[in-house]
Amino acid sequence: MTNGTTTDTAPAHAGAVSSPQTNKVFAAIDIGASSGRVMLGRVSPTSGVALETIHRFPNGVIELDGGLHWDFDALFAEVLKGLATAASVAAGSGERIASIGIDTWAVDYGLVNDAGELTAQPYSYRDERSRAAVERVHAVIPPEKLYATTGLQYLQFNTLYQLATEKDVDGLQALLIPDLIAFLLTGERRTEATNASTTGLFDAVAGQWALGFLDALGLPRDIFPPLIQPGETIGTLLPAIVERTGLSAGTKVVAVGSHDTASAVAAVPAEGQDFAYISSGTWSLVGVELNAPVLTEASRQANFTNERGVDGTIRYLRNVGGLWLLSECQRSWAAQGFNQSLPALLDSAAALPDGGPRINADDPSFTAPDDMPDRIRAAVRNTGAVLADRPAAVVRCIMDSLAAGYGRTLADAERLTGRNTTVVHIVGGGSQNRLLCQLTANATGKPVIAGPVEATALGNVLVQARAGGVVQGGLPELRMLAASGVELEKYQPALMSEPA
């Protein structure tokens, strides 16, 4: 996809789509930590899934009142602008937007009062405020007990640590970012389950809020709105939103996998169950799909997470550092006047020999924005190696380190679940990075299938289409449709040199 309006068309897979409803289109609001977009998705038995990018907009943290926040007011204004454009495009084609689905990143939230007002711009998970709350939380809920109930990977910015820093939440509700957008569109307060499972306050087995943990932290039991599952209707648009966007009064907002990784995994073009996935973007999410959580002490020690997926599946995965490292390096280099294109950087990095230095790509020291190239070189020095002060060398170090992290994580996932995977699917922006894909095949010793790039939007649209009666079946059928007509690239593993 490029900036502006683009269309990807894929023929439908036989048997995956029911009767034609060509007048229905679906709007996907898909927002990541660095950018967002509003897309239209068309699903039919003759043309399959077609995605059209309607509106793109930047997203990022801002410094406000001494902390790192999201400019949510600006973000929501862009969402409305995108929906208005989508309504106009659909009307011009004689189509009707049947529903809207929303997915974003996880863990962050906004506090809303009884009047429905956002009390402040939401904090970003990249803010350091939650670090001080970790010990306080663990003093009342030991990490072992937390994991035995939630199955959630320890990350210092998980929602429960953020909420533990709040001074007074009486009379307030915490709405996770996609739920906050849905509330402002419909007036309905709900918490979508796949995102709820990232909070650290969700029972992985019961599929409900862990009320005892809320009590232990002194949080109101209704701090979160009631749960809703992907495919269920959150509500219809408020009159003010209808007037502002030009959308129909009866337009539904449908819950999808509102954690963007849940939507992406729903569209992984896999056959059978013996696959691993890597959702590669700002972060890398590396794991396998299960029917039940793994809550063992060994799993906790390995820092794996059990998050909900579409149709009640479990996304058993671990967060690994992602392309944030690369984008931050590019930002630093651009500020210094070095503006080489990403393809040229990757080509230069690929020309370097195997066996260069590596870092721990998911070290918390890389979480905050700063001079990333300097921090990477410092991390290499801490290993006793030396990294050349050249962009190509830094980029190759990032790619080698990410691939090595993927390999270790997948090996751990297989060991902890007893599942032997035969193929690795890389979806998202990283699927376009040929160097990273090849290095991942080398590091895992398994073939890598790259694509689709737009897996998150595909998963978002397909869940809506199923809820709207256009698509029938379970995840296998959705995945067959997602794979139809998409150009996938396969990488075979090659021998790797040992790192220096």
Structure description:
The structure is a single chain. The longest helix has 27 residues, at 391-417. It contains 17 helices and 22 strands. It has a domain at 7-259: Nucleotidyltransferase, domain 5. The protein starts with 6 loop residues before the first strand and ends in a 9-residue tail after the last strand. The strands form 6 sheets. Strands 1-4-3-2-7-15-14 form a 7-stranded mixed sheet, sandwiched between helices. The protein has a 7-stranded mixed sheet with strand order 18-19-17-16-20-21-22, sandwiched between helices. Mean pLDDT is 92; it is low at 1-22. With 500 residues, it is of the alpha+beta class. Helix 11 runs antiparallel to helix 14 (391-417), helix 12 crosses helix 14 and helix 14 (391-417) crosses helix 15.
Instruction: Give the count of helical stretches.
Output: 17
**What is the topology, as strand order, of the major beta sheet?**
1-4-3-2-7-15-14
Assigned CATH architecture of the domain at 7-259 = 2-Layer Sandwich
Low-confidence stretches: 1-22
Q: So, the CATH homologous superfamily of the domain at 7-259?
A: ATPase, nucleotide binding domain
Beta-strand portion reads 15-25%
Radius of gyration using CA atoms only = 22 Å
Going by helix content, strand content and strand pairing, the class is alpha+beta
Biggest sheet statistics: 7 strands, mixed
Instruction: Write down the overall geometry.
Output: globular
Distance between the termini: 37 Å
